[in-house]
Every structure is written in C-alpha cells, then in structure tokens.
Design goal:
This protein has 772 residues and is α/β, with parallel strands linked by helices. The radius of gyration is 48 Å and the shape is flat.
C-alpha cells in the first residue's frame, strides 16, 4: 500500500491551522497579561499575609510571655490582696512591661502593652502609664468567656475610648498559678488604620484597597480614603469595582477568629509595572518563537515522523489480512487515515479477543473466558456443575512421545470433551496445561452427575489414542465435580474447593469422579488454619510439655518421656496427630524440636538443682535428624544448660532408619559417642527389622501398644522373643500403652512400663510432686 504524505485536503487543513494559531496567539497575549497580573497579585498577597500572620503570632506569643512573667503575676497578686495599687506595684509593672516593648519595635500598628488588674480596678500602659478606675469587665472589648481561656484571643474590634480609632485587642487573661483565679489581663491594641496602612505599604507592586470585616461591620481603605464601621452588607465588591480591573483576595484565617481580611488589587497597575510588563513581553516573544517552531515541527513531522507511523498502520493491516480479513489496495493520501483506522477498529479487536479468550492449541475457551462463562451461568440462577479433569501422567506422555504428539493428545481430548456437551448448553474449557473444565446445567444431565461423567465423558476415552509410529496412548483422568451455587459461594471458592477434591483424588489414586465432600474440604480447611496458626505458635508460647513417667517392676519412676501439647489461642486444643505432620511439611518441626529440647533442658536443670537426676526421652522428627545442623542444635542447647548427655534419650521411628541416609547414620553415631541414648519407638508397627537394631546399635526398644492391648499368650510370646533379642543386643525394653493391672502383672518382667496404668502425661510441676 502506498500512502502520499501530501494531498489537497491536507493543504487546506494546514492553512486552517495557521489561521487558528495566529488568532490564538493574538488572543493569548491579552490573556497572558491578565493571568500574569492575577498570579502576581495572588502571590504578593499570600506572601504579605503570611508575614502578617507571623506578626499576629508574635503578638500572641508576647501576650503569653507577659502573662506568664512571674513579677507581673506577683504584682497583680499584690493588687488583688490590697484591693488596689501602690508605687511598688506600679514600678514592678512598668519595669517588666518595658522588658517586652522592644519585641514589637517593627510593628507600626501596635505601640503599647497594657496590663489590667481585675480586683484592683486599674490598668497600667507602657504608653500612658497608670489608668485609674479601669474596670476591665465594663470595657467594650471584654467578654466573660475570656476568663476561661488559657490562650490569647482577639477581641471584636471597637472604637478606642482614648483615640476613637477602631481597635482590635489581643487579650490574654493572667491566672493565679496556685488558685487558677483570673488576676487581670494583658492587652495589645492593634489600630486598624495603622494596620491597613502597613499592609498597603508592604504591597508595593500595585495599588491596593484593604478591607477588614468583623462582627457584621467593615473598616477599610478605598481610593485613598479610610472608612470605619460600615455595615458589611453595604460593601459589595461587584459594585465598588464594576468598572475597574481588580482582583479581590480574601483571607479568613489570618486572625484565627471572626476577622476576615480582603485585598482589592488593581491589576492594571501590575500590568504597567516595568518588571511585569517586561516579563509579559518576554512571554509573548516566546509564544511567537514557539508557534514558528511548531509549524516547522509539523512540517518535518509530516515527512519524517508520519512515514513510520503509516508503515506501522500498513503492517497492522497486513496482520489482519493474515488473520483472514481482506483490505482493498489503495494508493491514497494521508487524509484517508480515517478509513484505515475504521477498518482496523472493526477487524483487530475481534481477532485479539479470540486470542485472549480462547486456547490457541485446542480452540476451546481458556481460563479468562471461564470467568465470563461462570458469571453467565451464575446469573441465570439455575444450578450447574463444574467438573475438573486432570490428565494423569501427561508429563510421561510428553516425555515418551514428544511434545508434538502431546499437543495432538490435548487437541483430541478437547474435541471429545466438546462432543460430550454438544447436546447441552454446557461448555468445555482448557483451564491450564493438562487440566480441562466442563461446565454444564444440572437439569440438562438428568440431575445425575456421575452417570453423565461415565457415559458422556469417560466412554469416549475407553479406546487408546492411536498415532503413526507411536504406541497406543490410554487417557485417564483424576476428576472432581462441584455443584453451583449450593456447594460454593463464588468462582474463587469453587476453584479452591475443586482443587482440594482433585488433590484427594490423586492421593486415593481414583479413576472415578470425586464429588465434592464437605468433610474432606473441612479437613483441608482445618489443616490450612493449623498451618497458618502454627507459624506464630512457638513465639506466642502456646506449646506445653507434658511428661509421662516410665516405671520399673517395683513402680519406681526411672525415666520419663516428654510429650508436646498445643493449646492454640485461636483453635483451642490441637492434638499432636493433627499438627505434627503439618509442622514437618512446612519444616517448622525443626524450630519446634529445638523448643522442646530447650524446655526439657530447663526442666532437667531445675531437677538437678534439687539433687535428683533422671533420663528424659524426646521424640525427634525425621526431618530434623536429617539436617546437617542437627548435632549442633542438640549439643548447643544441652551445653547451654550444662546437661549431662547421658540424661537425654532421643526417640526415633523405623521410618528414619529405612531412609538409610549417611547423614542419619553420622548424626546418630556422633551423638551416641557423646553419651546420648537412642530409642527405637513404636517397634512392631512397621517392618520391625532386627537388622536395624544391630546396625545402628540403639540403646532402647519401645514396644508399641498394639502388642499390649490384648496381651494374649500369642502377644506375650512375641514380646518375650523381642525381649530376648534386645537383651542379647544389650538393649533396654520399654512397653508402651500399659493401662490395666493385668497388663502390668503380665508384662513388667520384660522391661520398663509406660502407660495410663501408672500415670497419664502430666505437667512438670505435677511430675515433680510424683517423684516425691
């Protein structure tokens, strides 16, 4: 496709552009001047009022400082006690007030500090000295609420009795530091006329009128005239400046009270300011330069920049054509871009949508499309079933037959699954690599999910897939199904639950469809809660050690086994058979084992301090004993509490020995050489191979309670045989699970006894009492 960069339509567009730019440039000059004036007036006003706010803060801080001066407080206390003043009181006030006058040296609108005495009924001014018969409560500025204030306040402006000027007083009540009673007031008078003149002088850049509004009145300067106590409703800025170019800027937070300040700035005087005027001219020049630059860039862009753009458009059109859409050949100009854009808009989205929502290999809807389908089925309000089919040993198919054949297998599975739902409103989805979903209304499969799965799905895979030069491939699934909405709340909940069912199906090696079972899911949820809670259980001190005594035939306690118990703050009591294997899966068992050993070492240390000793058995996880750091973990803890190694027995299961790992043999040998004993736990429940006893040279063999529960002649004979072998190997025997007198009487001759017959597992404090 050839595209001409210039055509008649483009030339007309260019001419229109230059006319518009010229008009905008002329219009912008006035607009920029006006906006500059507004900007400068706002900026200058904010700066001046920020400084004025600092001045007000300084005056309040000064009032605070005067009111807190201990000599002034003392003078006012004396005046209150004497009911008036004397020379000493007046001298003290004069001397201390004058200490603060210099602070206000730069402020023309405040020139004096006045201290009044409430009970003395006088005032002392840094400007005019003693003011007799000064009754504070009768002054126009006074309000009863001031007496409770612990901070300076600005009183409502009033006409000063002495000068007649409108005055706003900063008032800070002086309180007796002992009784808290008000003694007097510190007053700083701000004269409005002086205040307005100072603001005007500070605003040098333009002519400015100042308005101060208070209590429904306004005092202001306007056109060089000073006006006081005008009703606020009579001051209308729109009327005052209707024929003038003014910017009225309102500040309502300067005094932190009911006083507002407004600055009416003459914008024309700013425009005529030499600095502002020169800046405006600079901006105008820049706009002219920029306009010329834009014109040049556009011209160059048509030649350089747009050429690759149209090359890209042509490429997109070629891509669409390759996807199956035809585009007519045009030898067109740039003005035809709209035509090309419309064609791309109509063709490309549907192609992209297909690639996003459908599996490229099988043509089935994919995971993203499933979300839409799930919402569609849910919104209809009719129950539907979702089945997850996981191809068994698909990796083996790929490894044996190659990826190309694996792709063929997936395509054929997709076709068969599509066929299985073709007479329903259901859909087959390729959810991930070797996982497929079937979603179908339950009422369209006669409410019999199992029968539908057997007859409509599995029946299609009875015969192996045949491919040239390949062995027949029999397709089998691990599959699960869940009903919606009765068995799940939403899509995420459904996916979580169906994957739990698939995991269970794999664990059971099932070939049948596994329907959702809430009991199975509850176990999973409980395991997940345990797994999450277990992470912080050790640090939260939720584990407790119980000790079960091991006795000799005379019922003397000679050993004990440490057994961990978990009392979760969130889950309550969690039996060991529910959390130990989860701890092993997450490798938290290593931290837990170290905690158990340290707890045993602490308890043994306290027992040794009483002059007694006893061997304690600790169960060791296969996960921990296969760690390179296992020996270091054990010896570090025992050495930390100065525990003799022979007082520790580590119990292991036959599964550890079956692993036949060098690290296990090495760890056991190193610890045995140090004096630690090893016991083989639960003997009789596994392979029960005596070769392990000889090869590992273990110290203790523990007979599982399955031989003890019945204790018939046959079981006793087996125990007797094991006892003879263990004696020949130099091993000690412990019989677990002894619960009755008969069991004890029949079995105590073979070795030590452990079980509820003598004692259940008990906490350390009870165990110590049991020892006597």
């Amino acid at each position: 496709m050839k595209i001409k960069l210039l055509d008649a339509r483009l030339l007309i567009l260019g001419a229109v552009f230059f006319v518009v730019v010229f008009y905008m440039t002329v219009t912008s000059i006035d607009l920029i001047d006006e906006n500059t004036a507004y900007f400068v007036s706002d900026m200058q006003a904010v700066d001046i009022m920020a400084q004025f706010s600092e001045d007000i803060k300084l005056l309040k801080d000064t009032a605070n400082a005067v009111a807190a001066d201990k000599d002034i407080i003392s003078a006012l206390q004396s005046a209150a006690e004497e009911g008036g003043y004397n020379d000493e009181i007046l001298n003290d006030l004069n001397d201390n007030i004058n200490n603060f006058i210099h602070i206000m040296g730069n402020l023309t609108f405040v020139d004096r500090i006045i201290v009044t005495s409430l009970d003395g009924e006088f005032a002392y001014s840094s400007y005019s000295g003693l003011l007799k018969n000064f009754i504070t409560q009768e002054r126009e500025w006074f309000e009863d609420s001031m007496l409770d204030k612990t901070y300076p306040v600005i009183a409502t402006p009033y006409a000063n009795l002495t000068t007649g000027e409108i005055t706003a007083s900063i008032v800070k009540v002086v309180h007796d530091p002992v009784t808290g009673e008000p003694l007097g007031c510190v007053i700083l008078n701000m004269f409005m006329s002086s205040l307005i003149r100072e603001i005007q002088e500070a605003y040098r850049i333009a002519e400015t009128d100042i308005f101060i509004r208070y209590d429904g009145n306004v005092t202001y300067s306007y056109g060089g005239n000073f006006v006081t106590n005008v009703q606020a409703e009579d001051v209308d800025f729109d009327v005052l400046y209707k024929d003038a170019n003014f910017n009225v800027i309102l500040f309502d937070d300067v005094f932190e009270s009911e006083l507002d300040v407004a600055l009416a700035v003459n914008l024309d005087t700013i425009k005529h300011n030499e600095y502002v005027s020169s800046n405006s001219q600079f901006v105008i020049n820049q706009i002219i330069i920029l306009t010329i630059g834009i014109a040049i860039v556009i011209g160059v862009g048509l030649v350089i920049i747009l050429r690759p753009v149209f090359s890209a458009i042509s490429s997109l059109i070629h891509i669409i054509e390759e996807l199956g859409e035809d585009y007519p050949e045009y030898n067109m100009g740039i003005s035809k871009v709209a035509e090309m854009a419309e064609f791309i808009e109509q063709s490309l989205p549907k192609k992209i949508k297909y690639l996003i929502y459908y599996d490229e290999l099988t043509g089935l809807p994919n995971r993203k499309m499933f979300k839409t389908l799930y919402r569609t089925f849910s919104n209809k309000g009719n129950p539907f079933v979702v089945m997850l089919l996981d191809v068994r040993n698909f990796k083996g198919i790929n490894d044996a037959c190659g990826d190309h054949t694996g792709d063929k297998v997936l395509i054929q599975i997709g076709e068969y699954l599509n066929q299985s739902v073709e007479h329903t409103d259901g859909t087959a989805i390729r959810y991930s690599g070797d996982e497929f979903l079937i979603i179908v209304p339950i009422n369209q499969i006669n409410n019999n999910i199992g029968k539908f799965y057997e007859e409509s799905i599995l029946s299609k895979f009875e015969e192996p897939f045949q491919y040239p030069d390949k062995k027949p491939i029999l397709i089998e699934f691990n599959s699960a199904a869940i009903c919606n909405p009765e068995q799940c709340g939403n899509e995420d909940d459904m996916i979580t639950k169906i994957y739990v069912m698939i995991k269970k199906s794999k664990d059971l090696n099932m070939s049948q469809l596994l329907l959702f079972d809430n009991d199975i899911y509850s176990v999973y949820v409980n395991e997940e809660k345990i797994k999450e809670t277990l992470k912080t259980a050790i640090d939260s001190e939720e584990f407790v050690l119980n000790y079960q005594p091991i006795i000799d035939p005379n019922k003397n306690v000679v050993k004990a086994e440490a057994l961990v118990r978990w009392f979760s703050k969130e889950l309550g009591f969690v039996p060991p058979n529910q959390f130990i294997y989860i701890a092993e899966q997450s490798r938290l068992i290593i931290d837990l084992s170290n905690w158990i050993m340290e707890r045993v070492a602490k308890d043994l240390s306290s027992l040794i301090a009483t002059g007694k000793t006893m061997q304690i058995s600790i169960n060791i996880s296969p996960i921990h004993i296969m760690e390179e750091t296992f020996v270091d973990d054990v010896t570090f803890i025992l050495n930390k509490y100065n525990i003799d190694y022979h007082l520790i027995c580590l119990e292991i299961t036959e599964g550890v020995l079956i692993e036949d790992r060098d690290i296990v043999k090495r760890n056991i040998k190193v610890l045995q050489d140090l004096g630690i004993h090893f016991a083989l736990d639960d003997f009789g429940t596994g392979y029960s191979s005596f070769s392990y006893l000889k090869e590992y040279n273990l110290d203790i063999i523990k007979i599982d309670k399955i031989f003890v529960d019945n204790a018939s002649e046959k079981e006793i004979a087996i125990i007797d045989g094991i006892s003879r072998i263990s004696t020949a190997l130099g091993m000690e025997m412990v019989l677990e699970g002894v619960e009755t007198q008969d069991q004890f009487d029949n079995l105590n001759k073979f070795g030590l006894i452990q079980g509820y017959y003598f004692s259940r597992p008990i906490i350390w404090a009870e165990f110590i009492k049991l020892l006597g």
